[in-house]
């Protein structure tokens, strides 16, 4: 028995997680057939339409698609899209959206006029819901829980299948084969991180506010945790800022009881993350580093860039969130305003 097998994860149903992970992997053929369908129909550009959490979740794909493909990809905030109606969004566009609830008001509004334009819309949501009914195609996760990684795997099957068809990801089949064990990997990673999650939460939960830095493929995950989890679900004050922008204002706010949480990635932006860490060391600031390089995955190194964000969401959005809840004694499900009334 490995050391991690002995670790019990606080408020985490491992058996259910792995069972539902298997259900997600089993949807690969279904999603790849949808990729065939939209590719054969053709499109001139891709719009990743989200807001709040879904916008942040799409950030990794915006970054990676623009890095590895010549495809025109635009990540758009649904409320902003409703305000400006992007001129490049036409009947020949492919719009990809996501909504766990299926009722996100800004996305419903956006899809109403996008449908009138005639663009193809693929939605990762429930089929029988307001968002789903406005989509051309719906990919519904066959699970009962809303783990971000479930959506990421399904979205990867769709988007990277399309890149493969464009001859921009020729090793897609090997990539897709290798991530079949990703959920087991992410459980093991959780167990490695569990003691550290408790330590970090105990250290930071009652700070007046915490600065969060991140960059590259991990910037969206940094926003997701600091805003959607800590601000929305824990009422903890945060200041998310990219590693580069940190040095143009935010650095002056670093003082006693204002710690810096550094989400450190593995891409070309790591240099920027290291600069933030070096600064914190230089001024003796209180800081915490989450370095994805410390966590192993059963995928080829060349595929790690595509899955490293999933490590961060498993560790922060899932594990660290649970431990913050333990110390703040504020239920993650309790909101003051969100979904409490119309606004």
From TrEMBL:
Superkingdom to which the source organism belongs: Bacteria
Domain SIS: 35-169
PROSITE patterns, sorted: SIS
GO MF annotation, one: carbohydrate derivative binding
InterPro entries: Fructosamine_deglycase_FrlB, SIS_dom, SIS_dom_sf
Record GO biological process: fructose 6-phosphate metabolic process; protein N-linked glycosylation; UDP-N-acetylglucosamine metabolic process
PANTHER family in the cross-refs: FRUCTOSELYSINE 6-PHOSPHATE DEGLYCASE, GLUCOSAMINE--FRUCTOSE-6-PHOSPHATE AMINOTRANSFERASE, ISOMERIZING
Name this polypeptide is given: SIS domain-containing protein
Organism of this sequence: Floccifex porci
């Amino acid at each position: 028995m490995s050391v991690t097998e002995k670790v019990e994860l606080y408020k985490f149903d491992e058996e259910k997680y792995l069972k539902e992970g298997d259900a997600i992997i089993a949807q690969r053929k279904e999603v790849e057939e949808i990729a065939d369908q939209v590719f054969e129909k053709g499109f001139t550009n891709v719009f990743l339409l989200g807001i709040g959490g879904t916008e942040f979740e799409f950030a990794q794909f915006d970054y990676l698609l623009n890095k590895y493909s010549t495809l025109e990809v635009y990540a758009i905030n649904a409320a902003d899209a409703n305000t400006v109606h992007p001129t490049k969004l036409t009947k020949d566009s492919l719009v990809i959206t996501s909504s766990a609830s299926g009722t996100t008001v800004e996305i419903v509004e956006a899809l109403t006029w996008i449908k009138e334009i005639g663009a193809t819309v693929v939605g990762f949501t429930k089929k029988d819901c307001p968002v789903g009914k406005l989509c051309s195609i719906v990919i519904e996760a066959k699970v009962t829980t809303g783990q971000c990684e479930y959506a990421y795997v399904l979205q990867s099957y769709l988007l990277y299948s399309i890149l493969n068809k464009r001859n921009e990801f020729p090793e897609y089949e090997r990539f897709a084969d290798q991530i079949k064990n990703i959920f087991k990997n992410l459980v093991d990673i959780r167990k490695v991180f569990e003691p550290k999650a408790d330590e970090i939460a105990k250290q930071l939960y009652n700070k007046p506010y915490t600065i969060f830095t991140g960059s590259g493929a991990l910037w969206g995950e940094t926003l997701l945790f600091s805003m959607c989890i800590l601000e929305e679900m824990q009422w903890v004050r945060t200041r998310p800022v990219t590693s580069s922008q940190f040095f143009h204002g935010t650095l002056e706010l670093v003082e006693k009881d204002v710690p810096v949480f550094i989400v450190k990635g593995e891409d070309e932006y790591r240099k920027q993350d290291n600069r933030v860490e070096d600064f914190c060391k230089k001024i003796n600031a209180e800081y915490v580093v989450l370095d994805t390089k410390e966590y192993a995955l059963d995928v080829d190194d060349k595929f790690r860039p595509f899955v490293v964000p999933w490590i961060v969401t498993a560790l922060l959005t899932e594990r660290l969130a649970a431990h913050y809840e333990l110390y703040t004694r504020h239920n993650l499900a309790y909101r003051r305003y969100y979904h409490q009334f119309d606004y």
